[in-house]
Specification:
mainly alpha
Length: about 100
Amino acid sequence: MITGSYRITQIKKKVRDAVNDAVNDAASDAVINRLINEVLLLIVEDGKSLKNFMLAFDVARATMQRDIALLKAHQFVVFGGAAKSGVYRLAEEFKLKINQ
């Protein structure tokens, strides 16, 4: 029987593998871990604004914009809604990938 804890562990592994594959070797472990945690947060809380991400990870706006740009470039996240009130969500293709 597959437990909820086992499923969470498998999803974390898939997210970690995807982020590691997407990010070049020049990125520090701290950046890679933050990117992984940003994706995991979107799995738990569907939709986050840039400001909410900044608050959740206690980083500057420019840092979060770089992180989001990287996640968007690798099709992990998409932006939806109006420019001021929209949120970032996991891309459907990425959801399918981690739920396999």
